[in-house]
Amino acid sequence: MRYFGKKVRLRAIERADLPRYVEWFSDPAVSENLSIQLPMSLVHEERWFEENLKLPVEQQALAIDAKAGRGKWEHIGGAGFHAVDKRNRLAECGISIGNKKYWNRGYGTDALLTLLRYGFETLNLNSIQLRVLEFNQRAMHVYEKIGFVAEGVQREVHFYKGRYWNMHFYSILRREWEARYGATKE
Ligand SMILES: CC(C)(COP(=O)(O)OP(=O)(O)OC[C@H]1O[C@@H](n2cnc3c(N)ncnc32)[C@H](O)[C@@H]1OP(=O)(O)O)[C@@H](O)C(=O)NCCC(=O)NCCS
Question: Which of 141, 160, 169, 170 to mutate to test the pocket of ligand 1 (most atoms within 8 A of CB)?
């Protein structure tokens, strides 16, 4: 199954995608926002890929492809759910547009909206949460624009560039999402 937005689609990750993740996550401009600070190799990524396949399908990471015209797609990043709590119907989400050429062009917003639709309409979640470092102003802008509500701040939990940074927590509830975007009636 693939999940389509206006500009992107979400799909399962293939082994052939892995070198791109290594490239993206080795770039400090991308990885500093993801709390990744240590060197990453293709072998690390291949191990991660094998572990990812052992997770329940709803927790497996997804690739983000951008529409590149005439039925063509370009892999530009990743997204997905983790920390899924089935009884309480909640999960944490994450997103990364690794290809910087695609930043600030609406792809992150569309990918996150597509992920939310998948989470609420297919996985039947009630609350989708996320965390973001205090210096990631672009991501916070996107989350607030989409309708995520700030829940609180964990103080000085991330050490980077010689100092501690705060982590901001956000969530969006299914009823808030439906009021804004409407449940799909198909
Ligand atoms: C954060 C991220 C997913 C956003 O995706 P994107 O495709 O770049 O975002 P969009 O183009 O959809 O939207 C960007 C918005 O942020 C705004 N913006 C850009 N830089 C900004 C800044 N420094 N401060 C505040 N807002 C900013 C843009 O103007 C735009 O707002 P608008 O739609 O109201 O005009 C993407 O940049 C990314 O993956 N970054 C690296 C990894 C990361 O940070 N992941 C999130 C970890 S919590």
Answer: 141
Q: What's the gap in Å between 32 CA and the centre of ligand 1?
A: 14
For residue 57, what is the domain's CATH number?
3.40.630.30
Of the candidates 174, 80, 172, 170, the one whose C-alpha atom is nearest the C-alpha of residue 125 is 174
Q: pLDDT tens-digit profile of 76-110?
A: 999 999 999 999 999 999 999 999 999 999 999 99
Q: What is the pLDDT of residue 78?
A: 98
Answer for the pair 59, 82: CB distance below 8 angstroms, yes or no: yes
Q: Which domain holds residue 19?
A: 3-181
Q: Which atom of ligand 1 is nearest to the CA of 139?
A: 1
- Tell me whether residue 186 is in a domain: no
